[in-house]
Every structure is written in structure tokens, then in C-alpha cells.
Design brief:
- The complex is a heterodimer of chains A (88) and B (151).
- Chain A has three helices and no strands.
- Chain A has one domain (3-81): Non-ribosomal Peptide Synthetase Peptidyl Carrier Protein, Chain A (Orthogonal Bundle).
- The longest helix of chain A has 16 residues, at 3-18.
- With 88 residues, chain A is mainly α.
- In chain B, helix 1 packs parallel to helix 5 (110-116).
- In chain B, 35% of the residues are buried.
- The radius of gyration of chain B is 16 Å and the shape is globular.
- The chains are: A mainly alpha (88), B alpha+beta (151).
- The interface between A and B is medium-sized, with 14 and 22 residues.
Chain lengths: 88, 151
């Protein structure tokens, strides 16, 4: 199983638990706009905190942007930039 | 703290072309803030709120969730009013301060203050909550041109 697949699945599980999406987070397309899919700004904060716990990372201030959490791909690209990321 | 040149340049770009009053509004369900406090505990609280905001929210769980929901709405309204959603702002740089008369005011720090390009005294903040929702409105005059931006 490659790392991208694993990371995307971890992200989707977190979106399912915290993203409050109006569609099935486990089946959402990597490029799909999560805000269009119903994620609120508050839900994105919960997603961020859950991602930090799952990947054992901390998002620095400069990454606290709406676009960083706008899709599975955007989240994956942000996470893989963070030092010490741990993929389970 | 000295402001990096790049931030001043970004702020200067932000002020060009807009002379309109800036307004932002946000509404938050109080129970969802309460859920976040239960799910993520102090990590949620300390990532979003300053020490003073947490102290102002009190310790009674229902009151704390209600007040933090209003403060969260204020921070989101601030991001909208000043077009900071893509600026990478620490939520604690957008602080709701409780004044001696019981009213609340918005105080911007650091990068948020620089990019907003306005005086804190000129920012209007209104908070309210009812029926399980908290709402906040932030309004500010058009960005100010400072001598450093006029070069």
C-alpha cells in the first residue's frame, strides 16, 4: 500500500469524524472542495486538531489558511511538508 | 516586535483599491463549540483563545461554551472583514477583550494587526447569543494609508 493512499485514507477517516460533510467522506474525490461539501470553518478547526493528533504534527501559523484544508489533496500536501509526520 | 518587510508590503497591496467600510459576520452553534471542548480539551481552547479570553469565559461549562462560541464567531468575522482567510493568521492574534463596562472590543495583534491596516480603536465588534447560537459582527473603516505605504 503506497503512502499517498494511506495518508488519503487517514484524512478521509478524520473528515468522516469531524468534517460534518454532506456526503460520504470516505468516498470523496481527492480534489473535491470540502467547503462546497459542507465543511464549516469551525469543522475545519476540528479537522486540523484531529489531523495533528493522527499524524503527530502541528500546523504552523502560516498554514492556517482556508485553502490548506480545502480538499484531501491540499491537506495531504500540507501534511507531507510538516517535519516529523508519522503515518500509521 | 518588528514587522517583517514582506508583511508591510502585503498590507500595502491590500489597501490599494478599496475605500469601503469592511464588515464580517459569523454565526456558530454553541453546542458545537462545547463538543470541541470535550473532544479536544485544552488543545482546542489554547490554540484558539488567549489566556484573557479563557479567563473571561469563566468556568461554568454552559457559560464557558457560550462565551467561547461568541469569541470564535468574532475571530471568523474578523477573518472575513479583513480578508485574512488566506493570510495564515494565529487565532489568538484576534482577541476579544472584555472592557470594564462589560462590553467587548476586538484587539488585533502581530500579523493580523499589520494586515488589517487599521487602529484597534476604530474596529467595531458586536456579539450576541440566543437559542443555542452565537453571532458576531466586525466592522472597520477602509484601510488606512500610512507613510510607509505611500512610498
Amino acid at each position: 500500500m503506497n503512502e499517498v493512499f494511506t495518508i488519503d485514507n487517514m484524512i478521509r477517516r478524520i473528515l468522516k469524524d469531524h468534517g460534518r460533510l454532506s456526503q460520504d467522506a470516505l468516498a470523496i474525490q481527492p480534489e473535491a472542495d470540502l467547503y462546497q461539501a459542507g465543511m464549516t470553518s469551525h469543522a475545519s478547526v476540528n479537522v486540523m486538531l484531529a489531523l495533528e493528533g493522527a499524524f503527530d504534527v502541528e500546523f504552523p501559523d502560516h498554514m492556517l489558511k482556508r485553502s490548506v484544508f480545502a480538499s484531501v489533496v491540499a491537506i495531504r500536501e500540507a501534511i507531507t511538508q510538516l517535519p516529523g509526520v508519522r503515518v500509521q | 516586535m518588528p514587522v517583517p518587510l514582506v508583511l508591510r508590503e502585503n498590507a500595502a497591496r491590500a489597501v490599494v483599491g478599496s475605500r469601503r467600510t469592511r464588515v464580517g459576520i459569523d454565526i456558530v452553534q454553541v453546542s458545537r463549540i462545547d463538543d470541541s471542548l470535550h473532544q479536544f480539551g485544552e488543545r482546542f481552547a489554547r490554540r484558539l483563545f488567549t489566556e484573557d479570553e479563557l479567563a473571561d469565559a469563566g468556568t461554568t461549562p454552559a457559560q464557558r461554551a457560550e462565551r467561547l462560541a461568541a469569541r470564535f464567531a468574532a475571530k471568523e468575522a474578523t477573518l472575513k472583514a479583513f480578508d485574512l482567510c488566506e493570510s495564515g493568521i494565529d487565532w489568538r492574534e484576534m482577541e476579544v477583550r472584555r472592557l470594564a463596562d462589560g462590553s467587548c472590543a476586538l484587539h488585533l495583534h502581530g500579523k493580523a494587526a499589520v494586515l488589517a491596516a487599521t487602529n484597534n480603536d476604530d474596529i467595531a465588534l458586536s456579539l450576541s447569543h440566543d437559542g443555542g447560537y452565537a453571532v458576531a459582527i466586525v466592522a472597520a473603516p477602509p484601510p488606512q494609508f500610512s507613510p510607509s505605504f505611500a512610498d
